[in-house]
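A protein record pairs a chain with a discrete description of its three-dimensional fold. The shape at a given residue is found from the number at the same position. Here is what such a record looks like in full:
>
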Amino acid sequence: MTGGDVKTSGANARGLLATTSGSGAAVAQLEGGDVTTDGDNAHGLWAEIINAESAADARAHMTGGDVTTGGDNAHGLFATTSGSGAATARMADGRVTTDGEYDIVDADVRAWVEAARSNPAQYRDRQVTEIVLAAIGLAPSLNTNLVLKGGAVMALAFKSNRVTADVDFTSIVEPAGFADQIADDLNAILPQTAIRLGYLGLLCRVQTVKKMPKPLNFEEFDFPALLIRIGSAERGTGEEKRLEAGRAIRVLDIEISGACLPRVSVVRVFGTRSSVN
């Protein structure tokens, strides 16, 4: 949509809807104009893939215009997939206003980890994700400032089987403030967090912290981001030396971006059991 007005009323009456059960992408995109909904679960932009075999992406993207929702559980932008592709809700420009109550959904991280036990590679990746989420929840410098978003929320809150290769956060404060301290903070707490969760043979350590989109111009951008790469290794193996040298083969990427997104199913992390707003 590049202009004009869309107005809906009633429960589940979404403004822009893109859904597919096939193999293609689902894209709901607003470049200009107004989208207004009034009803419970009446999301502004909704993109959904309901084919578990699909590797395509679901995208609810906004580069301009206004989105206003007026019902309970009515998100401004929402993207979800039951396949293996990405689900992204992204706002580059424009305005989103939501006015309604939101349900609380329990997310059992350990259950999500155990669901992958039959797949050793995925099982380990999920263990690392649990360790990192718990470490952030235990770090005083991070747990009150970071809000989980994106595909990890979908996987945890809605018990999706999709692969989560990275974890995205919105920062309530400028991400630049974390750049110099986040590696030290996480490296200090990751080992004890792994032990606390019972993963005695699994080591995690920050490998790199990169300023995005460009390190040289980082301070000039309104919504900069940090990309933190966390490696993992099995204790007592050759992986351990590579981890200590910052060259781990198995990694989990954490992206922390500025608070420029509308409310789109976020979860504030406090340990390994969290809530989606």
In short: The longest strand covers residues 202-212. Residues 5-98 form one domain. The chain has five helices and 18 strands.
